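Q: What would this complex look like in 3D?
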Amino acid sequence: MFLINCPYCGERDQQEFKAGGEAHIERPKQPTELSDDEWAEYLFMRKNIKGVQFERWNHAHGCRKWFNMVRDTSTDDIKAIYKMGEKPPTQ
Amino acid sequence: MTKNLRVKSSEYIDETSRISFKFNGKTYHGFKGDTLASALLANNVHLVGRSFKYHRPRGIMTSGSEEPNAIVQINPGTNRTEPNVRATEVEIYEGLEASSQNCWPSVEFDIGGINNFLSPFLPAGFYYKTFMWPASFWEKYEFFIRHSAGLGKSPTSSDPDIYDHRNIHCDVLVIGAGISGILAAKNAAKNNFKTLLVDEKNELGGLTVYENNEFNKIDNKTPSEWLKKEIEELKVIKNLEIKTRTSVAAYHQYNYLLARENLTDHLEAKDKTNKIRQRLLKIRAKKVILATGALERPLIFNNNDRPGIMLSSAIKKYSEFYGVACGSKNIFFTNNDSAYESAMSLYNKGINVEAIIDIREQSESKIVKKVKEAGIKVYWSHTIVDTTGYKRLNSVSIMKLSNDGTSVTGSKISISCDCLGVAGGWTPAVHLYTQSGSKLKFDEEIKAFLPNQNTSEQISVGSCGGDFKIDEIIKNLNQKLKDTLNINETDLDNIKVEIDQENSKRNIWLLPSDKPLGKTKPFVDYQNDATAKDIKLALREGFRSIEHVKRYTTTGMGTDQGKLGNMHALGIIADTAGVKMGELGTTTFRPPYTPLTFGTIVGRNVGKFFDIFRRTPMNDWHLENKAEFENVGQWKRAWYYPINGETMHQAVQRESKAARESAGILDASTLGKIDIQGSDASEFLNRVYTNAWSKLAIGKCRYGLMLNEDGMVYDDGVTTRLGENHYIMTTTTGGAANVLGKLEDYLQTEWPELDVYLTSVTDHYATASLCGPNSKKILKKIIPDLDLSDENFPHMSFKEAKIGNVQCRIMRISFTGELSFEINVQASYGKHLWEKCIEAGKEFNITPYGTETMHLLRAEKGFIIVGQDTDGTMTPIDLQMDWIVSKKKYDFIGKRSLYRSDTMREDRKQLVGLLTEDPNVVLEEGAQIVSELNQSPVEMLGHVTSSYFSPNLKKSIALAVVRGGKDMIGKQLFVPMESKNINVTVANPVFYDEKNERLNA
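A: Here is my prediction, written as structure tokens for the whole assembly.
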């Protein structure tokens, strides 16, 4: 059970949060210009990394804000947390 | 045969308080402070159970939670009965009853004991190998296998006890109240850390509290005396909470731990009522100090499982702590000095010790010399090769051990005895440590796994960290405390410790016998009857991974999770396979450390609190009017209102007719409602719905369809424009929370530039939906001054009005195809509104209808229900709702996906209507649809999604999704059922009032 440091509320128990999958996948600005393959890449393809992964989390039972987390999926070590729109930390 | 083996009074036993209890129907006596195990041993009862597979007689082996054999059924036949309880952990109380498990008709004479003689035919994997063929017989085998599986019996009536959960946040959690735990907790608390100390036993002090080896001294006192003084001091320290009878079950990441606090299990039945039995503590600790101690290992030799064979440390505890002699002719069998301490403990209490058999060549420690001086015979370099005694040990045979420890030589000596204490060294209890995700490393010197790589703020102190001698324990504890608590001094700085320094040990995982291994029974896992032989067989059969060997042989898979024998299993695998133990790794230590009852896990969430539910403001009225309810999401919705003993079908038919012929009323309060405001609200709706919103006039309503980015229908509902920058969106009842979440997600992450604010107002409004040709007249009665003419208040528009003093929002929208008004008021006026409508509607025979009638009425109109007629694979085009998909808008959620090659296929499943050839036959929802009956395999074209008997059309109607159905109107298809094939014709899904004339009736 993680202890997650919500960038708006501080440390809270994992049960207050919802995981939202891979981070930094931007919705294409002009979807109609994309080929089926390009659209499918955005729509379906997600990484499933064993190791350091960038992911989205939502403080669903709290402030309801979305934010980003860098987590090592093999140890569940949370490396960093930052707000939406902020630059991801470089490793 | 009941002789009293209580040898000496102990301060932990209150001999003035005599307690009677029953074991297997017979009454025995013990004292307050006894465990079931100590009380039975005092009555010279060793035989307490039968093993799982061979039904071998088994006795009490240990004095703690690691017990593999003495597991009993507590209070059998009552609603408080509990199976698989360790007799070594049960504190006795007046009236306690316990019985043996896994034996029939009795533990003394058990028919299943035949398995012991059949054992050559029951090797590891017996069941896998035997019941494989013929495969079709599995169901028959299963019946018998299930019958013989399992140990105790679960209760058959509901649990009378109350359970509770509690959250605890602390600076320091100390697990285990032995010497290390006590000193750690004391120093943490003294340095102003909010500290919690827990121990699974009812007394503090662990093993050290009865440690009377005269050669060990702390500040010139015996460790026992010294620790008792520390415990006294502990009781008055601030910042320290102590919880005994509290077993940590699980240690998760980020220092989140679950512990079971036992509050009433040691009390008499009359004192248990109306009290919380157990409490699950959910602990989040900044730092965790593991002081979980070590478990003594047995030795693995032929027939090492007979009643009377115990751990050496357990014999010592029964004598020192409970004042009980486990036997009158005791022998110890050891590979280290521990057994000598136990022997001296018995000797000092006047209990007979016949001999010590030691596999080492010699030891020069002071305690060994003391034993020799006491005249106890020591057999060096000897091993036990066999034991005798079926229900109680009566002799051991010993032989000289070869230098390499793999065989025996010389002649066999038989020694008569009734109790054997085995001492195979100590295994640090690292279970909780590894559960936390931290990593172990094998230590060649102590032949055990030790904490190596911590992943959270934690330290392991005392013997669970690999320190066994008191001087090392205190020295290392002191340093670790200073480091982890960041303090400069502790009260351990000036403690003087003297100890018996000698510490030799000889480790042999599997001791040899004079017989070949195949003819012996050296048990590794006592509870599951896994022997060294089984482990070697598994290796011969090609199993290599420790996890596989474990599952194949069931080693370590009992209720004790192999706390005693797992290390030996690993050792035997390593020796046999010729690999190093460190390379082999361990099996995974999983929670819980000791079994938890379901009651503790669920806590208060039982009965009506099992799952939360939501009720509408009109709920009391529905109850008073005998509505039946259905669950929709977490809502309890009125389903139908039977009168005069109507069946559901009769009630729904009556309600459906009334709503179309005169007037009906539906409680629609559960629909999700989202208030949308902001200067970009219209643009936002444009992006989330498939149709266009910019031109919607203020005061007008519009139906919208929301897609997922993959183009599939996600939700639907009517949104009303209340002002220039203000909308109220309705969603499906079940989808409300998810829709809000999805909209917030897009707003925060994809379109943060939009000025839009979302507020869930589902609970703020109560909604009554008036429907039917007389609905306008009823509304006129309750709001006389509102102009309800079609010109002023047309279909798909909105008005604000007042019913008396109650402000309300009225939408003229319809989900039934009839003239309808949805009236929304502040939730607290919901029942008032409802009763007003019912009162006003009396002269029109206004009929309350539930969700079932609503579903029927909308099906007559061919309106979809998202989640019933759609399943996440339907696009608006599939639903034949092309009209709602804007061609002009550049983008909306899901738009691009509607042009993917797959979503554009003509032969996708499409929503159609179905009419049965016989209008009285109602199709089953979910039934498959085919076009050919004589095909093999038959091609499934789709399935029925909604099906009703329409009282208004007087025929059966259905909605279905059918592959290529759009172009099949008029075509005959079949719905094959178990008993018959039903002929159906594909039809337009709008069955009733295709021209929408009734909206303005």
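A: To summarize the key features: Residues 162-294+428-498 of chain B form a domain with the FAD/NAD(P)-binding domain fold (CATH 3.50.50.60). Chain B has a mean pLDDT of 93.
Q: Very helpful, thank you.
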